[in-house]
Amino acid sequence: MTMNKIYTFMLSALMAIALVSCGSNDETDTPQPAPVGPKRAFTKVPKSIAGSEFKTDASGRLIGLSGSSEAYAYTLDYNTKANKGKNEPDVVITQTEDGVIGTITKVFLNEKGYVKHAEMQQYDKDKKPYPPYSYDLTYNADDHIETVIETDKKGKSITTISYKDGDIVSCTDKIGTETNTYVTHYTSKEVTTPIVNKGGLMPYSLFGVDVDELDIAYYAGMLGKPTRHLPLGYSWNGKRQNTVTWKLDKEGYPIQCKVVVHSEREHTSIEAIVWQ
């Protein structure tokens, strides 16, 4: 794999009608999942992230994400069948580059509307398929991702995420007999108080969590809830791997993310966040 680690008022009403028609006397209100869409993930919906603009439909679902050049784009197609087959995905995410399909992701959601299983198929520039791979995810009681199991032709890798007070403390990857641990940092010499994640961003890669193209599913409100604070980077097996600097607007929303990757060839990336 070489991809960069870079949605119920009507439903409640219908359920109520169905219960009455069945003659139920149960007056207990059962909480329903929030509608799938960016508003489910973010406290304030972004207009764009890293130059890629959010496109939503009339119901507020994310249907596309693309840059101004349209060179690198994502489209999301939702399965609205009343009687969807067991093996039919709930959402299909298609990633294209210069109009050529790069990855097709079939997404299956759990009862809360979060990704539980995803099947990915990547293609090269000649439209030849690479070996497929998949992800299986579980969530804790707070709807944070707890485990990520990636399966490909080589086997499985299991990522276990630990939380404390709504923040990721560490992530442990296990591939065969090899285990790697990533510890998240929220403070530094310059930032002595954790930065509140006011907008609801969830840049999984900045925690050392590899979910590949599923980052887009978070933007669509289908990949769990964000941490309480923004990460300032992580250490891998005790060694600092990156440093993250956030620029906030006057209301405390992040408007820029600068990431310095510490490696033999240290490099820096800067991404802008524009809020609606």
Description:
The protein is mainly beta. Helices cover 8% and strands 42% of the residues. It has a 17-stranded antiparallel beta sheet. The radius of gyration is 20 Å and the shape is globular. The N terminus is likely disordered.
Provide keyphrases for this structure.
mainly beta; 3 helices; single chain
Question: What are the SSEs and their pairings?
Answer:
Elements: H1 9-21, H2 38-41, E1 46-49, E2 52-56, E3 62-66, E4 72-78, E5 91-97, E6 100-109, E7 115-122, E8 133-139, E9 145-152, E10 155-164, E11 167-175, E12 178-184, H3 215-219, E13 234-236, E14 239-240, E15 242-248, E16 254-261, E17 267-275
Antiparallel strand pairs: 1-2, 1-17, 2-3, 3-4, 4-5, 5-6, 6-7, 7-8, 8-9, 9-10, 10-11, 11-12, 12-13, 13-14, 15-16, 16-17
Cα distance, first to last residue?
A: 34 Å
Biggest beta sheet attributes: 17 strands, antiparallel
Label the structural class. Answer: mainly beta
Number of strands: 17
